[in-house]
Amino acid sequence: MIRFGLKLAAVASLAICGVAIAADAPPAKPLLGPLFVDHAVLQRDRPLNLWGEAAPGQQVTVTLADQSIVATADVNGRWRAQLAAMPPGGPHVLSARAGDREQKVSDVLIGDVWLCTGQSNMVWSVRASLNGRAEVAASANNGIRQITVPMVSSASPRADFDKPLEWKIAGPDTTGDFSATCYFFTRELAKVQPVPQGMIVSAWGGSKIQPWMSEAAIRSLGGYDEQLAVLEAYRGDAAAAAQRWGEVWQRWWLGQTTVTRGTTPWVSGRDSGSWQPAPAELTPWESWDVPELATYNGMVWYRARVKLTAAQAKLPATLSLGVVDEVDLTWVNGRVIGSSGCCPERNYAVPPGLLKAGDNLVVVNDLDTWQSGGMYGPAEKRALVFADGTRVPISGWEWQIAPAGLDTPLRSPWEATAGVSMIYNAMIAPLRNYSLRGVAWYQGESNVSVPEGKRYQAQLAALMADWRRQFEAALPFLVVQLANHGPMAPKPVESGWALTREAQRRAVDADGNAGLAVIIDIGNRDDVHPTNKQDVGRRLARAARHVVFGEKISPSGAQPAAAKRQGETVEITLADFEGDLVVYSSKDPSAFELCGAAEGSCRFVSARLEAGGKVMLDARGIAAPTRVRYCWADSPLCNLYDGASLPVGPFEVPVN
Question: How far apart are CA 157 and CA 167, in angstroms?
Answer without folding.
Answer: 23
